Automatic annotation (TrEMBL):
<protein>
    <recommendedName>
        <fullName>HNH endonuclease 5 domain-containing protein</fullName>
    </recommendedName>
</protein>
<feature type="domain" description="HNH endonuclease 5">
    <location>
        <begin position="4"/>
        <end position="49"/>
    </location>
</feature>
<dbReference type="Pfam" id="PF14279">
    <property type="entry name" value="HNH_5"/>
</dbReference>
<dbReference type="InterPro" id="IPR029471">
    <property type="entry name" value="HNH_5"/>
</dbReference>
Amino acid sequence: MKKCLWCFKNENETLFIKKAHTIPKSLGGQNYNQNVCDECNEYFGTKHENIYSIEEALKEGFNITRYRILLSSPNKRKTGGFKSRFFEIKERKGKKSVRYNNSFKFNSNFQKELCRSFKRGLYKMFFEELNRQKNIGYEDNFNFIRNFARYNKGDIPVFYFNRLYGIFMLTENEAATPFLLFDRMKYLFSNKKFQEIEFLGHVFGFPISSYDENEFKEYIEKSLKEKTTFFKDITLIKKFTDIDFIHSIMNK
């Protein structure tokens, strides 16, 4: 009997009819998780107190990356124009950058809430793929993720690793139909408390269960040691633009 990964309701208590894409379909995601009920699936795609959904916040950021990568591909003629509610891509002297649209540029609360929704979406994508690929996620320690991503309780730090070079590995069609692989590269460091993922060339690190100060310091130290060859520093994400969605390192 199916049991929802998020709310723990089973097939006698709720419906499991709709396909719950782990990566938003609007991002090109192809995989879906059968253990997500319709109610929880709809929650992530529904606008609540904000003017956008959690999935839209995730899509808005990573679509910038997809557009940049596809423009650099041999099939760039099929890419089409970049479309976004919140951002525009500017080009000057061959270098591309991202700007907020004027209607959102000076709204600091918007930028803060969009960043929070993006982080929740990142956890949603990670957690549903973890369950789909490894058949885990119902354990109590993962309530740490559920409370934040599904029920909007508390706040969890998410880190972004800034690359030294504009070179990263993608499969031929990965930008068009992105997917998430765990332990993809040797420089990704994870343990029982923290997880790192790489998605469309971006590397993120975040806790997956409760941790103490010593465990946090140990994670940061070991993670940075693994990345000295390919990454220059680490950023605690506080606003949406802390993430280099345009891969500006490719401009150099």
